[in-house]
Amino acid sequence: MLTFPISEFKERLTSTKKRMADAGVDILLVTDPANMNYLTGYDAWSFYVHQLLVVMIDEEQPIWVGRGQDASAALHTTWLDKDHITPYADHYVQSTILHPMDFVCDVLKEKNRARQTIAVELDAYYFTAKCYMRLTQGMPNATFKDGTNMVNWVRIIKSDREISYMKQAARISEKAMQVAFDTINEGVRECDVVAEISHAQITGTEDFGGDYPSIVPLLPTGDKTSACHLTWTDDRFKHGDPVIIELAGCYKRYHAPLARTAVIGMPSEDMQYVSDVVLEGINEALNAVKPGITCEELEMVWRRVIEKSGIKKESRMGYSMGLNYPPDWGEHTASLRPGDRTELKPNMTFHLIPGIWTDNMGVEISESFRVTETGCEILANFPRELMVKPNIRLA
Questions:
Q1: pLDDT, tens only, 278-330
Q2: Three-state secondary structure string covering 283-330
Q3: CA 355/CA 257 separation, integer angstroms
Q4: SS3 99
Q5: Residue 68 · residue 100 · CB < 8 Å
Q6: What is the DSSP letter of 266?
Q7: pLDDT tens digits for 23-79?
Q8: What is d(CA 41, CA 37) in angstroms, rounded to the nearest whole number?
Q9: CA 105 to CA 110: how far, in whole Å?
């Protein structure tokens, strides 16, 4: 079930160990499910219980530590041998007495690692305050450091195979967005539209199926388009409703997010004006993408466009993304915003989402792109416009 050659996993591990060495770290405990996948291929819906990889700078393979009943998933999906799959017993699961990090401490002590420097992903979604407490209590002679995003920064430049998976995800994004537009109509329930979107995301294309995306379809409607992260209700669409559609195709855990705004009937003058500004800004920004430009310089291209229109946007314009698990498809590294001096390099991938939200409406039109040697490649091929029903160009 490996999604990449073992040689690619080993290259990723080598790059991670270089970062560990630069930071003076002997052991990295990897709890982010995407980072676990990136280094070993591990892929299961088991992140609701504690699991991790123990990456030791002087060991060839990491050690997978997880719930006993998930050890078989590690055998099926990773390149690790049986000696590096170390399950804990079920009495550690959601116990008020024992904790899986107690087990991790025992594993490290057995390997005479009790006095080494250990980095942990302090700001990862699935690493809790209790995890840190039990580790520091169980390893009082170890030195703990913050290893947040150490692997994430290795992930930021994609391999050719990763890019190919993201392009396949983009084909699913195109299909799902078309289904959304076709299904949204006056009198239709929001939940029924999302059901069709989800069906398209999972069935994928005739050539390949889709995975579950890290974020469910977002579908704020009417004046609720001012709230960009709402999902859906069982309300029925009304004539004149604007609808924000944000979704992603996902293939082998790699995403290609895509957002569009639709209107059932004619858009208001305000919505048409804001969408025109958004479109001008996103087009200018995409034209400016090239290796060497920094994230904040790219954001400034967008900012110049919207400021002359009298519109302000305080939130970031985009972010690095790709491989991930719920609740987010972003990589938590580079952001397109003031102050981020990260230089764009070939095979970095971003979700460019320069949405504008006012007190009573919002417009989102986004693109996922890959940085190329000379510019950028848009991953999805879908009309970049305010989508109006009916619209013969999308029919």
A1: 999 999 999 999 999 999 999 999 999 888 888 878 889 999 999 999 999 99
A2: HHHHHHCCCCCEHHHHHHHHHHHHHCCCCCCCCCCEEEECECCCCCCE
A3: 14
A4: coil
A5: no
A6: P
A7: 999 999 999 999 999 999 999 999 999 999 999 999 999 999 999 999 999 999 999
A8: 4
A9: 9
